[in-house]
Amino acid sequence: MGTTTAICRVAEPEPGHRGRPEYPAPLPGDAGAPRALGGQRGSSIYDVARAAGVAPSTVSRAFSRPGRVNARTAERIFAAARGVGYRSGVLHGPTGQRTRSLAVVAADVTNPFDSEIIRGAHQAAGESGYTILLSHTREDAHFERDWTERELCAVEGVLLTGSRMSHNAIRMLAKQRPVVLLNRRVPEVPSVITDNARGMRRAVEHLAGLGHQTVTYVAGPEASWADGTRWVALIEACHELDLRFRRVGPCNTPTVHAGLDIAQEVLAQKPSAVIAYNDVMAIGVIKGMRRAGVQVPDDVSVIGFDNIALAEIVDPELTTVAAPLRAMGIIGVKNLLAAIGGATPNREPIVLPVKLAVRGSTGRRRRNDISPAWGTTKLSGSVSTWTG
Fold this sequence. Notes:
The protein has 11 helices and 15 strands. The chain has helices at 45-52, 56-64, 71-84, 112-127, 141-151, 167-176, 196-209, 225-241, 256-268, 279-291, 325-340, and strands spanning 6-8, 101-106, 131-136, 157-161, 179-182, 191-194, 214-218, 244-248, 273-276, 301-306, 319-322, 350-352, 355-357, 370-371, 376-377. α1 packs across α2 (56-64). It starts with 5 loop residues before the first strand and ends in an 11-residue tail after the last strand.
């Protein structure tokens, strides 16, 4: 069995950063040549395209499928690439060599959701003798695209975890290297997802069975495909089960602190139940409620998503939609390696099953509506601010 090393080759963007990343000035002796990752700002295929007077897609084909580009045009592109420092010192022409490396691009490696997927990817890559190059993009689509573009010549394939890039940017990558998406669906690009709709349906059914009538959804990042899918599923389930619902957010950095910060906004709606975008946000919401004197689950029931390890450590233990995160990483890498080996990728997503793990953060709705912590009565059926 082979071994593998996760190599983090890029610094995370500064907090609050929303544009392309800045890099330090070149070191003495570099002759001013841009260096991807670690020198000054590296060049992308867009810079090469401008210098060569061709479309970015033509640059992409010249490096990934040189036989499909006119020889004279290809030579002009390679000269332009050297001129602008695109992968200076590494890329000097078309690349077809086996690097036995995979890029694993994660939105937030500090999030236990991503870390479990990375563990699975690491395991599967190692079993096939591959290393992984790991990127932490901190939910920044520009940074994600920039880093991935620079690493393409160093890897044989790319695994994107919860990518925040646009559909078009992802399709562009998929034309240059085999790409597999995790927790995201883009037409014509292979993907592995969990059954978000079924998971949300199970969560809403559980709350309805406990007598709850009002649900607030704490939304995740605006660019998250999973967040949108879960919100739509919640709307459908609440309509079918005759529950009222509202939404707060979005929280573009879905952390414990984000959940803590938004807890007051959640409490202002006085729901009897809350479903959060993920477990860490649910934990933050519970903490914020406790600070406000609101008890979980006596006053409010809370459900998360993902079933990370912390879900069983917090008090009360968190009811959550459990997803096979490590299996997702393993399956994603195996499908990526199959594509690298020439297999025809499945254009329909691989959907992994989920289940509801019921724990102590959910309970039966209390019928005595007076809550000392809030000092007011809870919502009645006549409140018009709720949808449903």
